[in-house]
Amino acid sequence: TDALTLTWSIAKKTVAKPSAAKDLVYNGKSQTGVAVGEGYTVTGNTQTDAGDCTAVAALDKNYAWADGTTDSVKVAWSIAKKAVAKPSAAANLVYTGKVQTGVTAGEGYTVTGNTQTNAGTYAAVATLDKNHTWTDGTTAPAENFTKENGKAGLL
């Protein structure tokens, strides 16, 4: 007797292509911009700092994308800078003979020229780090905070 040979197959399982997470804002912790899903691995999908990123999703051998393709896909994603308020100069400073702080540093920025001992007018500069922006959308250093003869204010 002759043997009958039959051909049969198992189709690849189809999965949706991954998409980017929306509305990520810098928080100082690692964030995931593209989630891992069934049938594929993702690289370049986590980051801590604000900025633009590209993740790559690669299928496992038994899977295909829902559109029938099997090539790796690139997914653009980003983490927005966190908005912080511009600092203000301290009010009512009066000579004490000790070092005083005219403008205090805060989250996301450093301040230079902000401490003095003697009465007078001084300028301080607040400079943002790479993960922050001012609440008005600008990133330029905030300047010209002054204290003068016991009075403080913004020039």
Distinctive features:
155 residues, three-stranded antiparallel sheet
| Fraction in helix | under 10%
Run of helices and strands: EEEEEEEEEEEEEEE
Number of strands: 15
Unreliable stretches (pLDDT < 50, length at least 5) are: 151-155
> How far apart, in Å, are the first and last alpha carbons?
103 Å
- Mean pLDDT figure: 92
The helix-and-strand class reads mainly beta
Relative strand content: 35-45%
Overall geometric form: rod-shaped
Radius of gyration over C-alpha positions, nearest whole angstrom = 28 Å
Question: Order of strands across the widest beta sheet?
Answer: 10-12-14-15
**Counting H and I runs of at least 4 residues, what is the number of helices?**
0
Largest sheet, strands/sense/barrel: 4 strands, antiparallel
